[in-house]
Prior knowledge:
The structure holds 2 protein chains of 2 kinds. By secondary structure, chain A is of the alpha/beta class. In chain A, the strands form 6 sheets. A 9-stranded mixed β-sheet of chain A has the order 5-4-6-7-3-8-9-10-11, with helices on both faces. Chain A has a 9-stranded mixed β-sheet with strand order 16-15-17-18-14-19-20-21-22, with helices on both faces. Chain A has a two-stranded antiparallel sheet with strand order 1-2. In chain A, a hairpin with a 7-residue loop joins strand 23 (476-477) and strand 24. Chain B has one domain (3-134). The interface between A and B is medium-sized, with 18 and 24 residues.
Amino acid sequence: xxxxxxxxxxxxxxxxxxxxxxxxxxxxxxxxxxxxxxxxxxxxxxxxxxxxxxxxxxxxxxxxxxxxxxxxxxxxxxxxxxxxxxxxxxxxxxxxxxxxxxxxxxxxxxxxxxxxxxxxxxxxxxxxxxxxxxxxxxxxxxxxxxxxxxxxxxxxxxxxxxxxxxxxxxxxxxxxxxxxxxxxxxxxxxxxxxxxxxxxxxxxxxxxxxxxxxxxxxxxxxxxxxxxxxxxxxxxxxxxxxxxxxxxxxxxxxxxxxxxxxxxxxxxxxxxxxxxxxxxxxxxxxxxxxxxxxxxxxxxxxxxxxxxxxxxxxxxxxxxxxxxxxxxxxxxxxxxxxxxxxxxxxxxxxxxxxxxxxxxxxxxxxxxxxxxxxxxxxxxxxxxxxxxxxxxxxxxxxxxxxxxxxxxxxxxxxxxxxxxxxxxxxxxxxxxxxxxxxxxxxxxxxxxxxxxxxxxxxxxxxxxxxxxxxxxxxxxxxxxxxxxxxxxxxxxxxxxxxxxxxxxxxxxxxxxxxxxxxxxxxxxxxxxxxxxxxxxxxxxxxxxxxxxxxxxxxxxxxxxxxxxx
Amino acid sequence: xxxxxxxxxxxxxxxxxxxxxxxxxxxxxxxxxxxxxxxxxxxxxxxxxxxxxxxxxxxxxxxxxxxxxxxxxxxxxxxxxxxxxxxxxxxxxxxxxxxxxxxxxxxxxxxxxxxxxxxxxxxxxxxxxxxxxxxxxxxxxxxxxx
Lengths: 565, 146
């Protein structure tokens, strides 16, 4: 710091939700701004929303209309917006038709008219809509670029020196940025676009330039509805970071069997992806996780595919009163179904709910539905957006359970359709498998970044009391292929009534071709007396026969004698 | 009854009646009618523009034609609203002419309600009536808006 005080740049609230964040605090006071974009992109609505938010009887506004939408029609449609305040029209906000002056094709006349009106009203805000029309009307060779730039500079200087915050509204195309002097003179440029892809319309706003303060870079989605514009900043607002508790702090999944597989539950502040095919039980896990929240802990549930009523009914059939939790204020359910949501809009809805409720648990059921609910252009940025969302939420210590539908593919192991499994610290895979001519459900904990976990695949059932995890399926192999085979384990024969030594001798008889007492003693390591006693018992119990072959005693197992070896 | 609760039609009737009030001569009555229409026209121009204001008045005149008995609107550039008001008063008398002007005002306000809504129309006409009560000259926007 050089010790000199910088003049403060006061900002004005735009009155547009989300826009002040994008602008880096608000609209710089006395700035000369351009709101540009193609027809229908929302320029006029944006300028009017700013005007109605700021204009008062003490800080009046002048709205110059120019040959575009007649003021009569503009006022008619403007009244449909919730920000419209009839009391301000004609008092705090005065509309002036600049068309007659523009038609005189003399920029000096236009400037003179604007100046005289500014002197008369002494406004704090001025809007010229459409400024493009003013310029078009003077697109003559004798005016030229220099003449236009001079007009713009005089206008900007005049409005600023009269302490006016001004907005010029106009239809411009991106290639014009290079050559049109208005882009040089303007202090701030807000560029609005709208793209239609398939059946969805996506609107975006970009602060292309803003002198004096750091705005948020990039394209930000916005929506226009009866309330006006709502901007959804691209960069997720940090929810405030907390130090993640150690992995010993766990949250129960609401299912003892599952907690065992996770070696004590889900680490607090972690995220878990539950992947599996339709109907396998992902939502049951999510529901039990929510239902197991202790008294006083709040949660947020985001659903996309199902109707809230159906979802809550299903939870009730498992014995979980999520409906009651909602009524108590312990759970907020966000149901998003439209097919033209933007990622940022969705993200903000979720974040706001988490902040407002101070939620500690979040369930998004499912990412598949989330992706489907997005307008097609946003699906391309799906993973990046998801990454930002996870970072923002888990950084705030929220424990997250996400579900994702995976199409069964027996020849490969897929955790998620768009490789989103890397986003979470923990992953549970659920599958169907054919075991004993029946379709069984199996699950496994695939990864836990901060904890050990069961490595085994387990069968499970969805019962009326929820998910019940069965024993590890150790006797099967190839479960993940969908075609498990029972392992061929060496079967240890059972010989009733035999001691361990006698079983050892019998085993030797069964494999030996020359079972003399000497050879048996050699291969079993038994002493003569022990061997003699064992052989005597085997013969007595009819497990073996003693055969005398030319003075040589040999022993044969009964099974071998019978040719069943 | 507060201004905001009165219908714009009631307010507009008051506007004309207040202007005409005790005027006796045809010239004075003509000037009063011009003044009443002029007040509303000036105030409306600041909201729907001069062209918008004239367009609605022209449409209202068309709807009121049978009751106007030949009363004509002046051209857009004229400071007056009517071009032959004195002649009409002389020919048809005060009662018939003022009834025609009142019908025109009613239709004008009707159209305003259709286009800019009853709430905004009430406020605009209410401000004009308030300015007339104070005796402010027509076209003083700041005074009307205060």
